[in-house]
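Q: Got one fold?
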Amino acid sequence: MTDTRSTAGAQRLAATRDDLLRLLGDVDERKVLDILALKPAIDEIERAARRSVGDGDILAEEDRPLTAAASTVLDVLAADDEKEETSPAR
C-alpha cells in the first residue's frame, strides 16, 4: 500500500514510535515514552533533533522559536546529558 500523505500533511500528524527512532536514532526507551506522551508532530521532532545536535542556528530556524512540544522534546533529549555533565567522575 502506498502512503499518499503529503509532506506538509505528514508533518501535522502525531509522531509514532517508528518516526522517533527514524529521526532520533538510538534513544532510551524511557525518553521515547516521555516524548510520545507529548504527542508531538513529526516536524516538531525534526526541529528538536536538529537543535539537539547544534543545528538550530540554521538561518530558517533562527526566526522560528520552537513550539512548546518541540521545546519539551529537546529538554527530554538533553536530560541525561545534563546529569552526566554534573555527575562526578568515578
